[in-house]
């Protein structure tokens, strides 16, 4: 059994790379107050803690300012990827900001996980922290005992 963070989705990252760069450059040329704050937000994700106990994995994700309706947690059986995605809509671009530091857009973290009991996974969100409990499948023994005749 294992859990491993995936730094980014290579295919999706490549497709969005140009769009992210264009938005970052536009923003840096338009906003005088801390332009790199938003750029770094577009290129990074949120912080997580991952705990491995004998019977489960636990993930704590910091998502301050989000509502639970803006967060999706999904598991893909084919790849074994657990994805946490949070979306904060873009603000009105017609507004002239003096300073704009709050991040908007889609934020995502992906973990490769195997050996979990999907029917017993629990997800909760309180005080800006997402908590995911992923119970592990019972460990299989590779030991065979033979009858003596």
From TrEMBL:
<feature type="domain" description="SHSP">
    <location>
        <begin position="39"/>
        <end position="149"/>
    </location>
</feature>
<protein>
    <submittedName>
        <fullName>T786P28D</fullName>
    </submittedName>
</protein>
<dbReference type="InterPro" id="IPR008978">
    <property type="entry name" value="HSP20-like_chaperone"/>
</dbReference>
<dbReference type="InterPro" id="IPR031107">
    <property type="entry name" value="Small_HSP"/>
</dbReference>
<dbReference type="InterPro" id="IPR002068">
    <property type="entry name" value="A-crystallin/Hsp20_dom"/>
</dbReference>
<comment type="similarity">
    <text>Belongs to the small heat shock protein (HSP20) family.</text>
</comment>
<dbReference type="Pfam" id="PF00011">
    <property type="entry name" value="HSP20"/>
</dbReference>
